[in-house]
């Protein structure tokens, strides 16, 4: 196989144009190209409004080695090389016999993918999720957005698929992956209903609507392969052997029947979401080693999508997807401010999971067709900001902000124009910018009721000041970003887990034998793909140690 990189074509190109470009690059006959596969597609907007797609493709062709020799001889082989595909391989099974079925707690990406692989290879996992299956969960969430009536165990944070189910469904990750887990995650998504282009676009996303279908299809396969799934089921206690401090089982509660049961297992995968605060408290009480970790807090910022499109694409007339951005700033005090979970053509959603506390998140459908772009604009906070060295101090910090947000918005999403926020923080008036035309009629795109109020009072002064400094810095990169009519809402507090459940770097187990902390909630991932890949890593460790039941 030949891999060709840096194939550049106008964004208006056709499939036939790409085929011709491949043939031209290889200097061969059209018939000599047997097939090709797009490996990567990225957008080059450096010369906007002239925009280009840049491709990497794998090509099967006649006489590949001779072709490459000819190209080398003619000094035309700079972007062509022989390539051998190295697909992901799940490891061989171990020899130790399991006395009981593995238990996976949490049905977010980490737990779902861990259970998926264990089920496929004959380990008959038991998957526990305190929330609802995705179909029921969707109804609960939409009812919450409509009425404000929150179900503590079935909401944007809890339920099948995890918090990412109600997000933009981004699948890009910065995690290096020499063995191919990230690619395997995307392939499994495609096998279960995601569009094939997520395998090659530079910044793939599914969207909340398609992601729900994928999750349901994965669930059905786990069941067909012999797995077992219990919804509305919360782990309430972990059980250890008396002398060796190994896992011997758990106690769980059926939240509908209000009944508790014990299940025996020597293999427990802990894949809680980043909002599993009761679970973290229980584990701390059982002396499971954990530590506070840094995360970020801030607001959601909404801008007209057309403003972002113009900034990223210029006056390009081609039909292009809603534009995204990624912004970072380092403040003089060393604190970082950055955009997070940017949602082109998206919605700000009420993402609360506890009565009396309010958090927001961003969400997009696959089409990304709302009239606003939104992103979290967040400030890094570290354990030094928590004013306590307690492992759960970050949770207390989050709750303090969320309680203030709930109070400020009277139970609704608190919203404020940036100009008013700027005045409240700095005592100065915010001047209008040259982007005035984009802001005519600019209103929130939100799921859930909202209330105009003062956001600055929610945060410590140093956080509010950092948010202003970040917004002003970002305006240098996207003109109009800090326009006084841009819309802020809060509080964005669930950017990542405030806790890390400590595990060994090699075995991936806690010091408590048989306990495997896993995924974003445990502190080992950040996003759908990296969490899913971590779930696969844990499944690999179980596979390498134990023989399957079948």
Automatic annotation (TrEMBL):
Residues 294-495 form the FAD-dependent protein C-terminal domain. Pfam families: FAD-depend_C. It comes from the Bacteria. PANTHER family: FAD/NAD(P)-BINDING OXIDOREDUCTASE, FAD_NAD(P)-BINDING OXIDOREDUCTASE FAMILY PROTEIN. This is NAD(P)-binding protein.
């Amino acid at each position: 196989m030949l891999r060709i990189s840096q194939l550049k074509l106008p964004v208006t190109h056709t499939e036939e144009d790409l085929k011709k470009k491949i043939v031209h690059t290889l200097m061969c006959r059209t018939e000599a190209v047997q097939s090709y596969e797009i490996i990567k597609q990225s957008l080059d907007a450096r010369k906007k409004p002239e925009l280009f797609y840049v491709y990497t493709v794998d090509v099967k062709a006649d006489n590949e080695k001779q072709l490459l020799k000819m190209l080398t001889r003619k000094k035309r082989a700079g972007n062509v090389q022989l390539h051998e595909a190295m697909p992901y391989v799940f490891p061989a099974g171990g020899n130790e016999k399991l006395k009981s079925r593995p238990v996976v707690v949490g049905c977010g990406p980490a737990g779902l993918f861990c259970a998926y692989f264990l089920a496929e290879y004959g380990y008959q996992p038991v998957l526990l999720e305190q929330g609802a299956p995705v179909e029921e969960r969707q109804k609960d969430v939409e009812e919450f957005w409509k009425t404000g009536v929150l179900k503590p165990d079935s909401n944007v944070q809890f339920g099948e698929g995890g918090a990412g189910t109600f997000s933009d469904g981004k699948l890009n990750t910065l995690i290096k992956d020499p063995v191919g887990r990230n690619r395997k995650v995307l392939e499994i998504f495609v096998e279960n209903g995601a569009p094939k282009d997520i395998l090659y676009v530079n910044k793939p996303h599914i969207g909340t609507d398609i992601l729900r279908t994928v999750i349901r299809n994965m669930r059905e396969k786990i069941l067909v392969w012999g797995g077992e799934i219990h919804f509305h089921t919360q782990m309430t206690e972990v059980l250890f052997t008396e002398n060796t401090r190994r896992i011997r089982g758990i106690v769980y509660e059926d939240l509908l029947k209000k009944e508790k049961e014990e299940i025996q297992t020597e293999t427990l995968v802990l894949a809680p979401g980043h909002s599993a605060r009761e679970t973290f408290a229980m584990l701390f009480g059982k002396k499971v080693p954990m530590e506070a970790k840094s995360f970020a807090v801030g607001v959601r910022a909404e801008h007209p999508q057309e403003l972002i499109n113009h900034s990223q694409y210029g006056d390009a007339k081609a039909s292009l997807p809603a534009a995204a951005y990624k912004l970072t700033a380092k403040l003089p005090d060393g604190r970082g401010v950055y955009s997070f979970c940017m949602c082109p053509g998206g919605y700000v959603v009420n993402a609360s999971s506890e009565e009396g506390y309010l958090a927001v998140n961003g969400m997009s459908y696959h089409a990304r067709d709302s009239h606003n772009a939104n992103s979290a604009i967040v400030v890094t906070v570290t354990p030094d900001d928590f004013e306590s060295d307690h492992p759960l101090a970050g949770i207390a910090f989050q709750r303090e902000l969320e309680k203030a947000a709930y109070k400020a918005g009277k139970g609704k999403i608190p919203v404020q124009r940036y100009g008013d926020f700027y005045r409240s923080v700095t005592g100065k008036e915010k001047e209008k910018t040259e982007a005035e035309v984009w802001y005519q009629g600019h209103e929130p795109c939100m799921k859930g009721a909202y209330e105009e109020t003062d956001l600055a009072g929610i945060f410590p002064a140093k956080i509010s000041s950092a948010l202003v400094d970040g917004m002003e810095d970002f305006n240098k990169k996207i003109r109009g970003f800090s326009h006084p009519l841009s819309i802020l809402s809060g509080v964005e507090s669930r950017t990542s887990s405030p806790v890390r459940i400590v595990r060994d770097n090699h075995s991936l187990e806690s010091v408590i034998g048989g306990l495997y902390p896993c995924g974003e909630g445990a502190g080992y991932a950040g996003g759908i793909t990296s969490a899913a890949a971590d779930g696969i890593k844990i499944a690999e460790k179980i596979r390498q140690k134990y023989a399957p039941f079948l």
